[in-house]
Amino acid sequence: MSFSPVKGMHDIYGEDASEMEEVTNLLKEFAKMYAYKEFIPPIMEYTDVFSRGTGESSDIVRKEMYTFLDKGNRSVTLRPEFTAGLIRGVVSNKLYAEDLPLKYFYCGPAFRYERPQLGRYRQFNQFGVECVGADSPLLDAETIIMAVQSLCVLGFENVSVKINSLGDEESRKAYREALKKYFSSYMDEMCEDCHERINLNPLRILDCKVEHDQEIAKGAPKIKDYLSEASEKRFYKTISYLNDMEIDYEIDENLVRGLDYYSEIVFEIHVKSQAGNDYGAVCGGGHYGGLVKELGGPDLPGVGFAMGVERIVSLLKDNGLRKEQPYLLDFFFMPVGGDEEVINSVFYLMQTTRLLGYSADMAEGGKFSSMFKKAERKKAKFAFIVGTDELEKGVANIKNIETQEQITIDLNKLDEELDKLFEHDECECDDENCECHHGA
Ligand code: ATP
Ligand code: MG
After folding, report:
1. pLDDT score of 325
2. Which of 247, 329, 400, 402 could crosslink 242 through cysteines, CB 3.0-4.6 Å?
């Protein structure tokens, strides 16, 4: 019998797993600089959290959710996105009673039953933020600026931002009518999904990925002609902050985003792949006016974004921005001679080294050359070599795998000696006599 992962789901391991960890750590640290704190919602919610009656007409909610009945016959859904679950959490925990705005970041897997393809999986990871409880163009702008800067911190240079305004409920109501009128004369030529969309929410047609439908959508009425005065003012105010911060953006009048809860400003960020791959957007977000209330909370707005971590990792690779780790392990211990006593002493030494804060692994004996090869394969920085002679003298030989330089250290001063081996990483001196051993 052979087993494979569920279609569209992937095992992540080795350097991809390290890269993903590095990316998410950087994003989390950067979010903290914007005063965001972590929020960890459950992976599953009751289905209503996402569908809210018939409140959502988006493909994500109607077609792409992993929904099933639990053993208590309750309909539950693996989160297709974080915003609804996080806002449910804000309401369940009455966090809105705290100082507003609330600023939370999140990170973890999301699930969508989509057709798997490049950059599109059925389980993927998102990093994102939600700023809840204050209604201001300044916070809308801050959110966009933060998303752009996060991508710059990761090393991307040419990020392109697309923005649009969906206006307030009044603006959208008038706009939906205009779209309905426009698209009804093209219905014969449009995809089946759009036939449903025109009645459910004609705005969704603008998000259709079918090429011919996109062509038709180009000629559709534009939201800007239907924006209320307040929405228009808000849009241009947000843009003025982007101009002040010299953020490059492009107004995309057909940008509507994939979920219905958005209102006012929406945005998407794309990064060009130098390898010519098209993964779609790396980041999407926007303002949402009614979601907190829809989920049973007070009438508070929010703004946020979500990034696709896998797409970021692929783009880093395509654009030559993936940093090769110089080494993956500080020490690889090699007990020489093979007798049990040496192996046991080396095991004890390795544990001490780990407790001193270094990463370490060991061979359980074997030929010197094969142990050394193993150290190289494990990408260790140093081989920590100990045999009977060394143990008797209370010393060990440390060999730098890259430079092949070797020094002998005093095991009675293990802490100090190991510190010195890594001092050069920080000291960056050119002095050949420096105590730091120059990474020997
Ligand atoms: P797309 O237009 O590419 O389908 P979306 O609008 O459905 O994206 P969002 O709901 O805004 O995506 O999710 C935020 C980000 O999550 C996207 O910009 C993308 O980077 C990532 N993402 C979305 N769906 C997937 C998926 N199936 N696999 C991998 N990453 C995804
Ligand atoms: Mg999508």
Report:
1. 82
2. 247
Domain boundaries, the chain: 14-168+228-318, 329-433
Q: Which positions ≥6 away from 338 have C-beta within 8 Å? A: 365, 366
Ligand nearest to the CA of 113: 1
199 phi/psi in degrees, rounded to 5: -90, -40
Q: Which ranges constitute the DSSP H helices of 256-339?
A: 291-294, 309-318
C-alpha of residue 131 to centroid of ligand 1, in Å: 20
Locate 63 and state its tokens.
Answer: 């077609």
Which residue, judged by its Cα, is nearest atom 29 of ligand 1? Answer: 120
Instruction: Specify the pTM.
Output: 0.90
Residue 236: count of CB within 10 angstroms of its CB: 12
The Å distance, Cα 267 to ligand 1 centre, comes to 13
What CATH number has the domain spanning 329-433? 3.40.50.800
CA angle 223, 148, 320 (to 5 degrees): 125
Q: Which atom of ligand 1 lies nearest, measured to the CA of 280?
A: 3
Looking at domain 14-168+228-318, which of 3.30.930.10, 3.30.420.40, 3.30.420.10, 3.20.20.70 is its CATH number?
3.30.930.10
> Which one of the ligands is nearest to 10 CA?
1
Looking at the CA of residue 285, tell me the nearest atom of ligand 1: 11
> How much distance in Å is there from the Cα of 64 to the middle of ligand 2?
9
pLDDT of residue 439: 42
Q: What is the mean pLDDT of each run of 10 residues along the chain (440 residues)?
A: 95 92 97 98 97 83 95 98 98 95 98 96 98 95 98 94 94 92 94 91 89 93 94 96 95 88 95 95 96 96 98 96 89 93 96 97 94 96 96 97 96 95 68 53
